[in-house]
Write a structure and sequence with these properties.
The structure is a homodimer. Helices cover 34% and strands 23% of the residues of chain A. The longest helix of chain A has 19 residues. Chain A is elongated. Chain A has 15 helices and 18 strands. Chain A is of the alpha+beta class. In chain A, the strands form 4 sheets. In chain A, strands 1, 2, 3, 6, 7, 8, 15, 16 and 17 form a 9-stranded mixed sheet that branches. Chain A has a 4-stranded antiparallel sheet with strand order 11-13-9-14, covered by helices on one side. Chain A folds into 2 domains: 287 residues, Aminopeptidase, CATH 3.40.630; 123 residues, Alpha-Beta Plaits (2-Layer Sandwich), CATH 3.30.70.360. The first copy, chain A, starts with a helix and ends with a helix. β11 of chain A pairs antiparallel with β11 of chain B.
Chain lengths: 461, 461
């Protein structure tokens, strides 16, 4: 850490220049979802390649069937770890344009008073502002020291806002080149303006569409009601049976691989001051559902779920139709944690349904998703170093949190490259990503550069 | 009964003339659902009035907000009972026209061989062929005896195929005029070609739409899954709880007023040779659902049900969406028997749902239907006389059966006029009513006239 002070000083001194570079990148309307902007997407990639070259990266635009990737390499000291920094340079569409207070592609600084300034414009937070943190941290190391503390590969994607259709094949095709010791992902948020966060857990997902069939046609409930099987009854019973009265999921073997969260982590989450009231109040609820005697944060971050995402059957339009439908349909998903096995859970769910089906009824399945959870060891050197580095930078100690949903790229890094991901980002809940008037706090942009410089130094130490 | 033989002889002798009259009526395309045929509907009513006048009825076309009613009165012997004969002279639309083997409004006789002849054309069975049985039976009495055995009121409706929108108000407005000792309804079928049937029971109906609401908006199941109430889970549990493992409905008080069917009636139904295999096989099922240890006929004719007719919630389109929906919707109906009280069952159902609702969730209800069952006393003189009269006419004894669905007019006669209905009809399962190539067996038309003559004589005796 002895040589970090000059690096941080360069970051502080060069803030205006780094902002100017971010603004250059933000002016390119790299909307990946709209084919009309394909050339702009490419232009953003080319801008990044040119900028990375100025700080000594071996950088190139790399083709995919869709928008290109940016890949850049820089060596590190002998024996230092190799990190892969991931971000995405494409942005969300901007409509409805009339809700923007200023041109989404004319970035600006806005002073909110009380010492708070924000960067306004599309991509300021998601994700151009965040990916440039990596670039600026490396630039500062180069300027202050002439070297980086680690070997660094940059991988910047141009299709993240369109579902990353080319990512998996690109990782597979370039696995040897892209494999590093750890991935650093900057596409998440802080806990609050004073508290940085490391997202150490991401729930996995298994989805299954099921269709239960009984009679060979819709029936009149007067003629057949009481004698003919009703697939809506059968499906309702199956779905109701998925949870017991304590909120636990009843699939045999469902909790295999689920670990209890360490007491000190639960204590840390408790200190985050998120209560059932603050968590559920804004959505109009008061009582946590799911397993009893667990905090809302534990429920959404560290416990698995079975969730019915949709069902349909029979007549559900205006008025009434006394029909016994021939079939009923549901979509069910399971959020997984820790070492739960998606394939085993899918199989257990299918067995669970088949066991509840009358002999003359049938079921068909259509699988969706199927990714395990990602969970960093809370006590690993990676997490400890990152936490210490962030705690040095911000007013409050870094929180080690989790996310209830998946972040696909982290899953693919794990699956294809066998690489853990450290998810640290500086977005704030009021950044309005994907919405009009997106912004990024200037402090996120400034202290975010310093944060990554500290983390890179810690990992390289 | 001594004077019935000449009446039956007149019916036999005049079969061709009665067919000619039916054909005249059938040539009028009295499709009530299509406004383009409104004049034809009226023309059919006028034809009936004119015909009834020829046999001494005080007949008139009576206006309603929709299509007119035909009402006609004829006095009977002093002290004889007063019967109201109900039928409908409107017919179903005829499309798709290209599936008809002959013009639906050009009635004809078709010889199927083996002594079987049919009347082809729209309305032959439903219900012009059946309502003319009343008219022709009365005509034969007049011709043979100059009198009718009972006082007879004819009520022929012109909107039955359009949901009878004017019927209730018409009955209420003319209750004093229309009230009789019993209604005779000819709009049902025989058990088989040799076995006439008296429909002595009709299940009632209570319908309820329910919407369960939890959060104030749709939620992401990653962000909130495990902590936020899912209304699809709540609704599935409610619907699953409606039946116990023996197939009984679990609503408190649901079986109040339900009687066990007399053993001799169960024996009669058993002799009808309808098994689970013959009843469920054609719809692709094998195992009766519903209450255990009861025959399929008892289940659909004499046992009440709770049936989910539709449900919908969350995302049910193509693909998958990991949403926790804000609300879930279901339509549930109850088929009632004997003396079950629709209002009590609706209230019990609402209480049942409220008792299963988490404190921060809500439910709204939208009632549909609400009619009690209709059940004639199997041992009443009415049923006994009709059964004996029919048994005299047909190869096999009359079956006293029930219908799983309601026949609204019977409910309205009971509710508004306090009058039981005797439902006897001569349709056959292969009559293709509501479909192309509707037909009515000539034997139904001939022996149907004789059957009603026998019943009228028996009631008047």
């Amino acid at each position: 850490m002895s040589d970090l002070a000059p690096v941080l000083a360069v970051i502080d001194a060069n803030l205006d220049q780094s902002l100017a570079r971010l603004f250059d990148l933000m002016r390119v309307p790299s909307i990946s979802a709209d084919p009309a902007f394909a050339k702009d997407v490419r232009r953003a990639a080319e801008w990044l390649v040119a900028d990375l070259k100025t700080i000594g990266f071996d950088a190139s635009v790399r083709e995919t069937p869709g928008h290109p990737m940016v890949v850049a390499h820089h060596a590190g000291p002998a024996g230092a770890p190799h990190v892969l920094c991931y971000g995405h340079y494409d942005v969300q569409p901007v409509d409805p344009l009339d809700l923007w207070e200023s041109d989404p592609f004319a970035p600006a600084i806005k002073d909110l008073g009380a010492g708070r300034k924000i960067i306004t414009g599309r991509g300021s937070s998601d994700d151009k502002g965040q990916l440039m943190l990596f670039v600026e941290a490396c630039r500062a190391f180069k300027q202050a020291q002439g070297t980086l503390p680690c070997a660094v590969t940059m991988l910047f994607e141009g299709e993240e806002e369109s579902g990353s259709p080319s990512l998996k094949a690109f990782l597979e095709a370039n696995a040897r080149e892209l494999k590093a010791d750890v991935a650093l992902i900057c596409d998440t948020g802080m806990w609050d303006r004073d508290t940085p966060a490391i997202t150490a857990g991401l729930r996995g997902l298994v989805g299954e569409e099921i269709t239960v069939r009984a009679a060979n046609r819709d029936l009149h409930s007067g003629e057949f009601g009481g004698a003919a099987a009703n697939p809506l009854h059968i499906l309702a019973k199956i779905l109701a049976d998925l949870h017991d009265e304590t909120g636990r999921v009843t699939l045999p073997g469902f909790y295999d691989g689920v670990e209890e969260t360490p007491p000190e982590v639960l204590k840390m989450w408790e200190d985050l001051d998120q209560t059932a009231e603050t968590f559920l109040g804004p959505i109009g609820l008061a009582v946590p559902s799911g397993e009893k005697d667990r905090s809302v944060l534990e429920l959404v971050w560290a416990r698995p779920t079975a969730e019915v995402n949709g069902f349909a059957g029979g007549y559900a339009g205006q008025g009434f139709k006394t029909v016994i439908a021939a079939e009923a349909h549901a979509k069910v998903s399971f959020r997984l944690v820790h070492r739960q096995d998606p394939a085993k859970i899918r199989a257990a769910f299918r067995d669970f349904i088949r066991a509840r089906l009358p002999a003359d009824c049938s079921v068909t399945f259509n699988p969706h998703g199927g990714s395990p959870a990602i969970q960093l060891d809370f006590h690993s050197p990676l997490v400890k170093k990152a936490k210490a580095a962030l705690t040095d930078e911000w007013p409050k100690p870094a929180a080690i949190i989790a996310a209830g949903g998946s972040i696909p790229v982290a899953g693919e890094f794990k699956e294809i490259l066998g690489m853990d991901s450290l998810l640290v980002g500086f977005g704030l809940p009021d950044d309005r990503i994907h919405s009009p008037n997106e912004k990024y706090d200037l402090s996120s942009f400034h202290k975010g550069q310093r944060s990554w410089a500290r983390i890179l130094a810690a990992l390289g130490a």
